[in-house]
Specification:
The chain has 477 residues and is of the alpha/beta class. The chain is built from 17 helices and 15 strands. It is 38% helix and 15% strand. The strands form 3 sheets. It has an 11-stranded mixed beta sheet, sandwiched between helices. A two-stranded antiparallel sheet has the order 5-6. A two-stranded antiparallel ribbon has the order 9-10. Bound molecules: adenosine-5'-diphosphate (ADP) and magnesium ion (MG). The site of adenosine-5'-diphosphate has 16 residues, from α4. The site of magnesium ion (MG) has 3 residues, from α4. InterPro entries: P-loop_NTPase.
């Protein structure tokens, strides 16, 4: 040791160096768990740390996909004020830094800001205001047309049927369903003849004026076909307001599509906060937006913005003719790598809790995987959501479940419905704010603490109305 100190000039042999910390030996990990690698791997968005080990917790449905995680959809649940939105906001913002694109259906108004609680985050990322939906329409309000030709024929029929069924509060029988299908086709034809986009009012009109050829094809008299579809036409009239413009959907879904937004932006926030919560309008609006996004936003485009067909095909095996997508000659984009997307749905019990919508959603979620889409649904507890087979099926589509603190009865119901071990009920009741139980695939992480950095705090702050902020006047300090 003294020999070393006597060396005048540091030779490379004696250079002082900061030794890297090796963490791969299980011995060192066992001694000091926080230095062990994160359980879910190091790729993805940093969430925070696992409370019981101190290990970092990193999550990415796209990286973990297939590796113990069969799908990318997620449900975040828990009582109000526990940190559900804060987690989802920072998680999506951190994912955007990894190149993802995010769409948010924002349903909760932040009173002091007089806008949706996601507006500030959206603005800080893109500099753009949210896409606003307002009952009755008005200046700056957007409209999505369920009859938009951008939505494919089959999906459109399913969508309009769902709208009628939600408005009716009941399923349509076979005769009414068939009359509606015929009317949608006729409405499309009649609008095309008039060289304009069909709207829901055209479907109501077509239901009231059935075509003799349709009646003959279905072996019905014209009066019978009219009777089959009359109730559906009344429902559409009521929803769209008919003559007096007072319907639940007026100004939001009854005209041609007009969305003042760039759907290619990193984050698009749909502001539904002015739509009465819990009413049919929110439910239907969410269904229409999801279907519209599926048909318009989720086009399989490359990061360079072109369709796969614009890229070269490179044959990788001459014998079998197998090929892979190569560069795009115009944009010089080297590889077809579809941008991954995340859809956030706040207060999602409106859709998960409505069997007709849950059925539509289940189809959407099945598509989601093929499109590289991860959906996040935020709910309070499962008692808001009924136990119908459709709802059960759509709940099963979520492979990641994040549970914040819940009250006793709700925690017990959550544990029973999700088939979690019995001890988790008591544990869920005791979780503090910002700490959640995560279930990723089949693995349970009992205490994951979500960490907010200072720069993110003002974007997540949602409890202004209930917080006693310091009100000291400047001259008193
Ligand atoms: N991990 C966290 N660390 C610190 N503060 C948090 C954390 N999570 C949430 N909060 C704060 O708690 C409040 C309520 O959180 P929020 O996400 O809006 O709750 P929820 O969506 O469950 O109703 C917010 O003001 C937020 O800033
Ligand atoms: Mg919230």
């Amino acid at each position: 040791m003294t020999d070393l100190l006597e060396v005048g000039v540091l030779t490379p042999m004696h250079e002082t160096a900061r030794r890297p910390l090796y963490t791969e030996t299980t011995t060192s990990q066992a001694l000091y768990l926080p230095i062990a690698p994160p359980t879910l791997g190091t790729e993805g968005a940093i969430i925070g740390r696992e409370l019981y080990s101190g290990k970092a917790f990193i999550y990415c449905p796209f990286s973990a996909f297939g590796d113990g995680l069969p799908g990318g959809n997620m449900i975040v649940m828990g009582d109000t004020g526990r940190g559900k939105s804060a987690l989802t906001k920072t998680y999506t913002a951190r994912q955007i830094r990894l190149g993802r694109q995010v769409v948010v259906l924002d349903t909760k108004e932040q009173k002091e800001r007089e806008e949706g609680e996601w507006a500030a985050l959206g603005r800080s990322i893109t500099g753009k205001a949210p896409v606003r939906f307002t009952p009755g329409g008005g200046a700056g309000a957007s409209c999505i047309n369920p009859m938009d030709p951008a939505i494919s024929g089959k999906r459109q029929i399913e969508l309009v049927r769902t709208i009628v069924e939600v408005g009716l509060g009941n399923r349509l029988d076979e005769f009414a369903g068939s009359a509606l299908r015929l009317a949608i086709r006729r409405a499309r034809e009649r609008a095309a003849e008039a060289a304009r986009q069909p709207v829901l009012a055209d479907v109501a009109a077509a239901l009231r004026a059935p075509d003799p050829a349709d009646a003959a094809a279905k072996q019905r008299t014209l009066d019978e076909l009219l009777a089959d579809g009359l109730e559906a036409s009344y429902v559409l009239d009521r929803l769209c307001g008919g003559q007096d413009a007072t319907g639940d959907l007026t100004g939001m879904l009854d005209g041609p599509t007009s969305i003042g937004v760039e759907l290619d932006a990193d984050m698009v926030v749909f502001d539904l906060t002015k739509v009465p919560s819990g009413g049919v309008a929110t439910t239907i609006l969410v269904a229409v937006i999801c279907t519209f996004l599926e048909e318009v936003w989720l086009r399989p485009l490359c990061e360079c913005g072109t369709a796969p067909s614009r890229h070269e095909r490179i044959v990788v095996d001459a014998d079998s003719g197998a090929w892979e997508i190569g560069p795009n000659p115009d944009s010089q984009c080297r590889r077809y790598t579809q941008r991954k997307r995340i859809l956030v749905c706040e207060e999602a019990w409106h859709i998960l809790g409505t069997p007709q919508l849950a059925a539509l959603l289940e189809k959407f979620l099945k598509f989601a995987r093929g499109y590289g889409l991860s959906c996040i649904f935020i709910v309070h507890h499962l008692s808001d959501i009924d136990d119908s087979p459709e709802t059960q099926a759509s709940l099963k589509m979520a492979d990641t479940i994040v549970i914040y603190s819940q009250k006793k009865s709700e925690a017990e119901e959550t544990v029973a419905r999700l088939g979690l071990p019995a001890w988790t009920a008591e544990h869920i009741m005791r979780l503090r704010r910002g700490i959640a139980l995560w279930k990723v695939g089949d693995v349970i992480y009992p205490g994951v603490q979500h960490l907010l950095v200072e720069a993110e705090q003002h974007l997540c702050f949602s409890s202004g109305s209930m917080t006693d902020l310091a009100t000291t006047a400047p001259d008193e300090t």
